[in-house]
Design brief:
By secondary structure, this protein is mainly α. Helix content is 68%, strand content 0%. The chain contains eleven helices and no strands.
Length: 231
Amino acid sequence: MGSSEQSGTALPSPSSDSAGQRFVLNGNQRRVYDILFEKMDLKIALMYQACLLVLDCVEHDEKLSLAAHALRETMCAIAEHHGVTWDEKRLHSQLNELKSAFKKVTPDLVSGRQLPGGTISDEGLPRFLSGFRVFAEWYGNDVGNRRKQAENLFKKLFPGEKPALYQNLADIWVGAYGFFTGVAHHRKRASKEEFIESLTVFEKCIGTIRLEAVEDTNAIDELIAKGQVDG
């Protein structure tokens, strides 16, 4: 896809704040917006823009929560765009299998009551435990491990064999995602300054992607160094 000017797709007209002033992206924000639009999808770029719009133009006690939700959804959409997603169909299938296997475990064993003779003899138990082990391994390795998902995302953003880069950026990405999730769900209280700091981390992660698909190594080194200090 060409640039917004070349393709004829301009930035959607932003809303105005209470003073009637137009919301305008600054230079860095516009760069991030363009990368999301050009390299990914307009919908993703608009999610990011929505976060900035709420942060700058909305006066409400819930503004940080709303902005955090928009950015958290942006990060999820970026992962989904690159095929790094939860396998929801398999998740439901595995849970249903476990539920079915659990129903076949002896009720007395489930309730903790002593079985006749004081021994544990239950044909359903081995099947359930085996199924649970398979589920736990799959969930831990492929679904529940957001760090692994983030590594897979950066492998797609920066093709090649760069394990240290993927691991470092994944740590930074997951930290930012956890922050925005906590704020969005009211599990974490944060100041606007703290929010902007995590927003900047996200913007720098995206900003390392050039429109020409050549990564900005200086920006990456700076981001990783800051992440190691903050961590």
